Amino acid sequence: MTKTTKFVGVDRNVQLFKFRPAFAAFLLAVVSLAAACSGGEGPATGPGGVDMNATAATVNGKTIKMEDVERAVKQQAQGQESKLSALELASARLQVLQSLIEQEVMFQKAEKEGTVPSDDEITAEINKQKTQSGKSADQIEKDMKEQGMTEAALRDQVKKVLAIQKLVDKINGKVEVPKDAEIDAFYNGNKDAFVKKRGVKLAAIIIDPANSGEGDNTTDEQSSVLKANDIVKKLQAGQDFAQLARDNSEDQSRFQGGDLGYVAEADLKQTFPEQIAAELMNPATQIGKMMLTRAQGRLFILKLQDRSDRDEALTLDSPGIRQQVQESLVNSRKQLLAASYQAIAMNEARIENFLAKRVVDNPNELSGARPASVGNANATPAAANNSGSVTNLSNTNVSTNSAANVKPAATPASTPAAKPAVTPKATAPAAGNANRPQ
Within a 13 Å sphere around the CA of 311, how many CA atoms are in the beta-carbon half? Predict the structure, then answer.
């Protein structure tokens, strides 16, 4: 096995540095906070003649408009605007605004550091994002219109994201590669962590009935089953699994040809149905076998790539381990450096949050009641609670009934790729507690 284990970086992601497509799921919204907090009165004027109802915040004098907050919430609400109360909308908008403030602070830093991208770089990034969405040009145009996103606004958003990423890369240029002595010390202090547990190496094509913003083009149970049927037929006809994953999987793993990495047996049992976990771990199951199952509300077409039938102690001489420790230490320092840089930038910035002020001034005008027709927004779709037999890909097509009745797994927080093979028991030296192997 060439990939023996993975190391996960610091959990404290700086959200601002990660480009999020315009189709990501977020809090739902319903009532206008500006109307709720203003009580229907005319424009309110703040310091410097700022229209407080039209302005959400200012950063060093630069305005963040309420329409920008509205657009961001609309992008992330995905047509579910009618399902939250004014109180929930207030929370959603404040969270969105905080991200916009952080973005503006860092973008102004990027302007000073000369990391703003060219028009050609912006165009290239937009084209890449559109291609990775897996949607047609007409569908993208329709989605942008529904979300209130113009081409100019999209270019501005991408410009800021790229500028900030280039700024972070420039800042992280200070981080040096750790010396061999430090890598050795890390390994010797964490030997118990370097154990590859019994488990399997998996690849998957993942079909998501929900519009989760991962490039998916299925938005309901029926369309997801139809898509799975089509992929199964292509696999049975001998088409390449990795290429089909790149072209069709509705998950970030598609960029690695569907590779989910190594999954320990214990994590396998928590993620997938019992029958699937047992079959994957069964020595009689041939490497390369494919099977269909449901987990976490999604359809997984799994391919068994490798299996380890016993625990294995890893050393720095094991393939890839020394390099992974090195990358782990470097990445933890980079993430900590970026977070620290942002913290200093936020402290130095002159920020006026008018949206938060309106909430403080009028807290009792925000109703917590949802519209009567909404019902339980968190209700689980009935199809996700069905149970039944597992469909084996090797000799059975996926039908509407069989796919809907695949037994669901427990619902862990993440896909198998997020859980590497080893578990740490000690703190990483010189990198805090941030980037230990897991």
Answer: 9
**Which pLDDT tens digit goes with each residue over 351-381?**
999 999 988 988 887 665 665 554 444 433 3
CA–CA distances in Å: residue 399 to residues 230, 410, 427: 10, 23, 49
The residue-averaged pLDDT of 298-314 equals 89
Contact present, 195 and 312 (Cβ < 8 Å)? yes
CB 220 within 8 A of CB 207: no
Q: Give pLDDT tens digits for 127-175.
A: 988 887 767 888 888 888 877 788 998 899 899 999 999 999 999 999 9
Secondary structure (DSSP) of 90-127: HHHHHHHHHHHHHHHHHHHHHHHHT-PPPHHHHHHHHH
Amino acid letter, 332 = S
Over residues 94-110, the pLDDT tens digits come to 999 999 999 999 999 99
Domains within the chain, CATH numbers bracketed = 15-174+332-365 (1.10.4030.10), 198-310+381-418 (3.10.50.40)
In the block, tokens 């190594």 appear at 262
Contact 339/14 with Cβ under 8 angstroms? yes
CA distances from 80 to 73, 325, 372 (A): 10, 44, 15
Which pair of structure tokens corresponds to residue 422? 């080893």
**DSSP, residue by residue, 386-408:** ---PPEETTT----HHHHHTSPP
Burial 89-124 (b: 16+ CB within 10 A, else e): bbbbbbbbbbebbbbbbbbbbbeeeebbbeeeebee
Q: For 339-349, what is the mean pLDDT?
A: 96
Longest CA span, the chain: 75
34-38's contacts with Cβ under 8 Å and 24+ in sequence apart are 34/66, 34/358, 36/86, 36/90, 36/362, 36/365, 36/366, 36/367, 37/358, 37/359, 37/361, 37/362, 37/365, 37/366, 38/358
Please tell me the distance from the alpha carbon of residue 361 to that of residue 250, in angstroms, as a whole number: 44
pLDDT higher than threshold 80 for residue 89 = yes
